Every structure is written in structure tokens, then in C-alpha cells.
Amino acid sequence: MFRWIPFAMVRVTAFLGVGILAAIEFPTVLHLDGSTFINALLLSIYALLVQLREEPDRSSAIGIVGLVTISFIGYTLVLMHTASNDLTHFMHERDSIQSYIAIVRSVPQEKTKSWKVEIEVQAIRTESWQAADGKVLLYVSSDSLPLQWNYGDQVLIKHAPVLIKEPANPGEFDYKRFLSFKNIYHQHFVKPSEVQWLAPPKRKGFIYYSHRMRAWASSQINRYVHDTQSQAIASALVLGVTDGLDNDLLNAYAASGAMHVLAVSGLHVGIIYALLLFLLKPFGKFRGSAWLTAGISLVCLWSFAFITGLSPSVLRAVTMFSFVALAKPFAHRTNIYNTLAASAFVLLLYNPYLIMSVGFQLSYLAVLGIVYLQRPIYNGWEVKSRVGDWIWQITCVSLAAQIATFSLGLLYFHQFPVYFLVSNLFVIPLSTGVLSLGIILLCFSWMTPLATVLGKMLSALIYLLNQTVFLTEKLPLSLINDIYITTWQCWLLMGMLLGVLMVFEWRTLSGLYVALLCGIGFNTIQWNQYLTEKTEKQWVVYAIRGHRAMDFISDGQARFVADTSLLKDPEKIRFHIRPNRLMHGVQLIRTDSTLATESNGLAYTWWQNKLITQIDCSAVVLPEQWNTDYLVVSCNALDIRKIRKEQIGMIVLDGSNTQNYCNKLIKFAKEKELPMYSVLHQGAFILTESK
To answer: How large is the average pLDDT for residues 160-173?
Structure first.
């Protein structure tokens, strides 16, 4: 049974993952007590079957019970790691919290109008102080000086945190769900006067010193690398600090297919491990050299993790390569697939929610792709010259990783970099040089003359790297974007790939049938989506605080009506509005700052035989003989006392109104039985009509 998965740890990790995913998607099916009881029962059955395993027909039963037990262990792990199940979590007393004491658990990040920092609650004040726990995402207004908090500092904060809201607009990134995987359910926006620093860390543990080490390393890079853009790239490549990267630079790296080099993860740790193996190769002739290499590799890899602040992405990658390094001395007694599965198993035992991390998914898929596909692709073409062979090796690595992560890339990023093979020929060697030089610079930063030279060399390499990326971005059709697939389509794409691999691996038609069925399923979903786009028209009033924005979508086109400040803010449009357009296949967008204007100052338009009117100026006087199907209110412009129920089908308050104004109008509308919808309270207003 399950022998089609030939590696033991792969089977175990796969079934652990099934249990974890089941708990994430269906968390209320079992409670912790019930799940623990089932685990104990299954373990007892497993132990009994092992005692009676002399009978051959029981071997399959032992395997099945064992793997099912692993799945229930995964389910239980999720329940145990879900902070909301903890009775000491402050959320159970949130409504009565007056203030709370918390510990800083991240480096403050500078945002447009605030400082963002993750904190961990220690105590809350209701009628009296009491112990509590839980995490909060704190935003401190940037009206003050830079937030000079360190990891472990103790702070006092007035008032209570608020629950993070669901996505307000269709297709918008579910930030609430994303943070829930980190056990963060609340956020708190405060002014500097509402926060008080209390004390430095009581006990300066391992993580504290790791953060201090990263701060020191960042200061050394900034000391010897003078260009601001080069500093940002060096900090991102060497330390994983991405705060200084601007949007233009990020977009260029994304378009060239080089985005992976800006986040310290498997690529960077793999480069360091490969360099260590190369440097330690001369010791291979000595007895016990395999264990010496493994020991030095572990020390160096974990030292690198320490310098980078022990970020989750680096810890994942270092753990993965630690298992690979430890497996080397065992040689023939280990298998790379079992080794990778074992590292994933340990990581998921430590934190089962890692399975939902995009970095975790992409890292393991990329490594599996390289391990399984790189060699067959490389063997498909023999290159005689040494330089050509080197180029072909890099190409095969890039191609293998891209094939393995292709479907996830479309699902999460909605784009495909056309020239990734070309860019990676230069980006991988150059980023390797930047990473190596950056580490050498940190090692010799105490020698100012040498460090100065190294800093100039590092700046030159980063310049070449950036120019390569910018040049690739400028190539025609460098990026295919606005690709939308569903999660099911992502799975079906993976199934198609697995089917094709089965054909080449086992030389049977079963793989072809799998690929064909998955292809039919993928195209069925795509065709259904196309028919929906063709037969539906949609009017959306988006929920974007401080802005008025609406789309009229039909036949792959959108008329976008918004205020001028939003039209000049592509990042807000990308985050709040673009996902809905992707879902509806919008290719052509026409923008307006207002609807057509009538002589009395009201803006209006007809949509599907319905009159839509917008008022955004309080000076406009509504005529006596006037009615509309929908009245969109902007900028606190409406005096609702002048509205009669028979004049209006629905009042829609857009995001440009203030919260207090909306609250007052909602209260008044309830008293007068006026139909009203507030996007700040209820999310985007969506009206769909079939043709």
C-alpha cells in the first residue's frame, strides 16, 4: 500500500501535511480533546498490530494505520499551535482592556505614515492588571522621531487592539488569513502619546543578540557601500533586509525573473553551502573528512542564520541544508528525497502553519525540481566547450526550478517573466558574487582600508546586477502579467506536470491519462470563467479608506472612476482594485475623475437601465423633483435630512467619507428606514447583472 511513493519519509511527511491542511481548512471538525483521544486510540491500534505482525497480511494494515495516525498528529499539531484556542489569550477580555504591556518581537519597519512592529502581549489592564498573551501588529504614527525599539523591549500601550478585518474588496489579498497563520489576529493604530517605552529586555537571549548582530552588519554595509540603492540591494541579498527597496527596483527584478535573489532563502543558503563544499574539497582525501565537512558546514550555515536575525525564511533554508549536510557522511545509506522530506517534517512539527507559507512552498518545490529535473534536462544536450557547458548547467538549474514552481508563481504573482533563462545566466553568478563579497566585507570590516576596497567592489557588482535586471526588463514582452488562475487550476497544472513526468519515468500511458484529465479540468474551469466574463456586467464601489473609486466592468473592459490622488497611486490600485479586474479578465481600462455632470452639479450615469448619481460636494442643492436608483455619496457631501425615501433606491457611502459621518448617516437611515450601504462597514458594494 502506498508503495507508489517509494521513500519512507516522503510518505510520512505527505500524510502529516494532509492532516495539517485538513485542520487549517476544517478547524472545527474536531476539538483538541477529541483529536488527542483519536491519536491515542490509533497509536494503541498501531502498537497492537506491530505486536501481531508475524502474520504477513497485517503488514499493509500496519502501514495504513501508521500513516493515518501521522495525519491525525498533524491535525492535532495545528490545534495546539492555534493561539485563539488558548484561554489565556487577551482576545477573551479584549472589550474591557484599558491598556496593556507588551514585548517587542520584531525590528520596527518604516511605512508611509507609520512604524510597523510586531509585539507580544504580557499583561492587560481591565479592572486590574492580569497576565495574558497573544500577538499584535502595532502601527505607531510616524509623526514622532524614528522608533528606536530593540527586540525584547517592554512597552505600555493605551486602549485595546482591534480585530483585523476580512478583505474589503473582491479578490483582495486576505491579510487576515495570512496573519492568522502567524497567530496574529489583532492590530492597533496608535499615536506616539499613547505608547510608552518601559524597559529594555530583562533577559537578553539568543534571538536578541541575533537582532543586534544583524543591526551591526547592516551598519557596516551602509558604512562601506555609499549608494542608497546599492545599500538596499546589499542588505537584501546578504541580510534579508528588504525595507530599503523601492517599488521601481522591485518591479524590475520581478519583470526579469530575478525576484528570488532579493529574499534570503534557499538560493542564498544553497550558494553558501556550495561554496563551503568547494573550499573544503581539498580535505576530502583525509579520513573522517565527510564528518569534518558536515560539522564546518553546519557551523557556517547557522552562523549565517544568526547574522541575518534568524528570520523564518533563513531558518527554513538552513534547516533544509543542515539535513542535506548531515546526510552526506552517511553516503549510500541516505536518499536526497528522504533527506528533504525529513527536514520538512521537522519544520512542520515545529510550526505546522509553515505549510501555508509561500516561501516554504516555493523553496521545497524549487529544490525538488532541481534534484529531479536538472540532471535529465542536462543530459539531453551534450555541450563540448567548457564555457558552454557551464552556461548549460545554469540554464538547466533555472529551467528545472521554474518548471517546478510555475503553477504556484501564476497563482500567487499573476505573472510570468519571459526572459528568466537569459537573466539568470547573469543574475545567479552576479548575486553569488554579491553575497560572497558581502560576507567577506562583514568579516573584514574591522580593517578599514581593506573593507573600503571591498565596499567599492561590492558596489560595482551590484551596479552590474542592477543594469542586467533593468536591461532585461526593457526587452519587448519581458513580462506576461495579469494572469489569473484559481487554486483548483493551480493543482490541476501540478497534476498535468506530474502526469508528464510519470510518462517519462515509468513509460506507461497512465501518466498521459492523468495529464489529459487534469488538462480537461483546467480548460473546463477556464472556459466557464470566460463565459462568466462574457455574460456578466459588474458595477463595483470599492472600499478604499480616504478615496472614492468605482469600476464599471463589461466584456473585458473597465471604466474606472476615481479621485485624482488614487489615480496617481498605482500601489493602492494594485492591492485593492487589480485582483477584481484579474478575476473578470479586464484588459482595457478607461479612467475618469468623475461621472458625466448634469447642469445642477450632480454627476450621473446610466448602467443597465439604472440611474447612478454621485454627490461629492456639500454645496450642491438637490432639486425637489428628483429621484435616482443609486446615490453614491462621497466626501461627507450629503445632508440626509433632505432626502425622501421615495426619491432613492439605495444610498451607497464610498470610502472617501469619514467613519464618524458614516456612523451618523447609518443611524439616521435606520430610524427613517432609508436603504443604505457603507463600504467602510460592509466592504465593497457589488452589483452584477447578466446580459
So the answer is: 92
Q: How does pLDDT run across 565-588, given as a tens digit for each residue?
A: 999 888 899 999 999 999 888 888
Assess contact for 314 and 305: CB atoms under 8 A: yes
Query: How far, in Å, CA of 115 to CA of 87, rounded?
Result: 30
Strand partners, 356: none
C-alpha distance across the termini of the chain, in Å: 52
Q: Could you tell me the CA-to-CA distances from 590 to 124, 133, 536, 689 in Å, in that order?
A: 51, 49, 19, 20
- pTM value surpassing 0.70: yes
Q: How, if at all, do strands 135-141 and 129-131 pair? A: unpaired
Task: Report pLDDT digits (tens) over 391-424.
Answer: 888 888 888 888 888 899 888 888 888 888 888 8
Among the listed residues 399, 398, 400, the one whose alpha carbon sits nearest the alpha carbon of residue 429: 398
Q: In 290-409, which ranges are E strands?
A: none
pLDDT, residue 139, reads 92
Q: Which domains does the chain have, with CATH numbers?
A: 8-80 (no CATH), 90-204 (2.40.50), 208-481 (no CATH), 537-690 (no CATH)
Closest by CA to 543, choosing from 652, 636, 457, is 652
Strand partners, 677: 652
Residues 130 and 139 sit within 8 Å (Cβ to Cβ): no
Q: Which amino acid is at 510?
A: S
- Residue 100 burial by Cβ neighbours in a 10 Å radius (0-12, 13-18, 19+): buried
With cut-offs at 50, 70 and 90, classify the pLDDT of residue 315: confident
From CA 515, how far away is CA 522, in angstroms rounded?
10
CA–CA distance, 108 with 660 (Å, rounded to integer): 30
The residues, ordered by sequence, that sit 6+ positions from 268 with a Cβ below 8 Å of its Cβ are 237, 261, 317, 435
Residue-wise pLDDT for 470-518, tens only, equals 888 888 888 888 888 899 999 999 999 989 888 887 777 888 899 999 9
Residue from 249, 269, 272 nearest 259 by CA? 249
